[in-house]
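Input/output pair, single chain:
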Amino acid sequence: MKFCKECGTLMVPNEKGNLECSNCGKTTRTKQAAIVEKIEKQKQSKKVEEQDIKETMPVADAECPKCGNPKAFNWSEQTRAADEPETQFYRCTKCRYTWREYD
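Output:
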């Protein structure tokens, strides 16, 4: 790690392999080659697909708001902050309509 002599900000590698201050823009050459790697974050899908619903998934007594069927598959996911309760998801066993309920 190297800090800028002008303003004290952490120096980061630039495209040319030199170190550059992100605050004042001062650049310095390095004796060692700086490794620059771009990391792209991929969004992970949490969507429950049709093949994920099997006979082993729990069935709850929940009335489907679309067709009125009294049974639905259910699962829960942490969709909000850790100090908030989990979100309950339901999928109708008859028409496959999916809805959620917050506690």
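The chain has a mean pLDDT of 80. The two ends are 47 Å apart (CA to CA).
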